[in-house]
Amino acid sequence: MVNKKVRVRFAPSPTGGLHLGGVRTALFNYLFAKQHGGEFILRVEDTDQNRFVEGAEQYILDCLSWCGLTPDESPVVGGPYAPYRQSERKAIYREYAEKLLASGNAYYAFDTPEELEKLRKDTPNFQYNLFYRDGLKNSLTLPPAEVAQLIADQKPYVIRIKVPADEKISFTDLIRGHVTFETNQVDDKVLLKADGMPTYHLAVVVDDYLMKISHAFRGEEWLPSAPVHILLWEYLDWKNEMPQWAHLPLILKPDGHGKLSKRDGIRLGFPVYAMNWLDVKTGELAPGFKELGFLPEAFINFLATLGWNDGTDQELFTLAELIEKFSIERISKAGAKFDYEKAKWFNAEWIKRTDTNILLPQVKEILENKGIAINDTNYLASVITLIKDRCILMEDFYQQAAYFFQNPALIDIAAIKPKWNTEKIHFFETLISKIKGMDDFAPLEIETMFKALAEELAIKAGDLMLPFRIMLVGGKFGPHVFDIASMLGTNATIGRIENTLKEL
What we know:
Helix 1 (about 20-35) packs across helix 10 and helix 6 crosses helix 7. The strands form six sheets. A three-stranded antiparallel β-sheet has the order 3-4-7. The protein is built from 20 helices and 13 strands. It is elongated and about 110 Å long. The protein has four domains: about 5-70 and about 205-250, 3-Layer(aba) Sandwich (Rossmann fold), CATH 3.40.50; about 90-190, Alpha-Beta Complex (Glutamyl-tRNA Synthetase, domain 3); about 260-355, Orthogonal Bundle (Glutamyl-tRNA Synthetase, domain 2), CATH 1.10.1160; about 360-504, Arc Repressor Mutant, subunit A. It is mostly helical.
């Protein structure tokens, strides 16, 4: 399968936010390249100037950087096949379009957009193809002199591929196996637009050839375009250099019906972009996995499992492990259902396994953004170690950590009152005096003293644990209550017991 230098490309269009399906395409390209000692290239396909969005290219670069998928060649770092923006390669494409014209495999088409739109309205299932092109305004039907005059008069035209009749086009897809198309079902795609810009079809073939791309991973929605691209490789005499293709399965809606879209995320309340994306046209902010509190390691791990597995029960993979274990043979042909709860599970597991010192700067920023001053990072590190097993998203560190730095804003008195009595009041008043007399306020010592006092006063220790927890943190959450008390220290623990007793 791999018999030449591996060079793969991720080639997004800067037309909006980077959908998680796009990031997965980048990831699979990256894993394959790194596994085979090859190069991972970022090529920006910005030939559709009508849909170009300012800032989208930088957003794509930022997303890849956050995910740890660093390109070996790109518009930023350069490389031997620069430029890596298609808009800067405009002259290159015309040269090859003219070669196709000269060989009779492409033709000029002078039909106006209005004329074509009328045909689409008047003719059911109209396509500009071998069945209709002989009745349209193009260089196949017009005399050469008239064609030359139209061009000399600068009449707008496009250049279209001439798809042959009654042929079969086949290729081997690395995921789907043998795939065959009938040319009679393929339309004459535009290769060069009226503004001189190439379409995706011409540009992708020319750039893949010139950049020596060995393998092309792309979404299965591009499968119907394959026959046009194969014809172009053949017509330009490059067929022996054509990359091996792998058309990746779709990422499906949570119910499995249809491709996942931004609208699904808005409707069901989950992100579909790697990072926050602000639509400059509508002013709408689409939330991203990063800003919602996902670690990049968890996001990448989750994406890798959407349509791929290594054949074992292992679910958690570092990027290095993914590089080692990735294989095209283990990519599914079927679409993969998006499961946000599973994504959050991955994040919780990655928070647990991530070193506290790595989490510390982000947690510090989260707390400080909420108005909590952090003066002792060693203390914060101890808090993170204690609570990180209880966090699903990074923002959860605020709820789980805030009470270690400030008194709870609210105390859930209602949870204590139903079973509250004078015996419990006496217990906690006595507990205060016991705490004042402790030399070692470690968790085990606190627990031993607490349970001994409960036994002495003939109260079940279990009936006292919940009120104690609520006094310290404000609600029914947090790690082991004696660990909390030890972290808070004697003064804060006593103060919170006293404050709650006043309210009961």
